[in-house]
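New to this. Explain these tokens.
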Amino acid sequence: MLVNAADGADLALHRRREVRYETEPPRDEETFRRIDHELLADDPDEVVIPVEGAPTRFQVWQLPQGWVATTAHGDHRCTVSASRIEPGDVELCRVHDIKPYWDGRRAFPPGS
């Protein structure tokens, strides 16, 4: 799972483009524009993911191998991209010590 709270670019759209380009690389301007138009026209579903214990509405798009969700949270846009876990099983909270998470990631690398 990847969580990002960066401002700026729409990371959910960026992730959806990456996934789409894997199956249909835009080899010309017309294809790029068509794909972008289709992605922008795709209406998201809504899901509630707790953030710091507070139920928070996210827009969610299903991807071939997972999902991506986004919401405005305070002054930031929060984007979650995940696979092998459902949005309803996610709860976001502030992490003050990341070391145990890195240790767990090393013990169970992606795809294991």
Q: What stands out?
A: The mean pLDDT is 87. The first helix runs from residue 11 to 23. The chain has three helices and five strands. The radius of gyration is 16 Å.
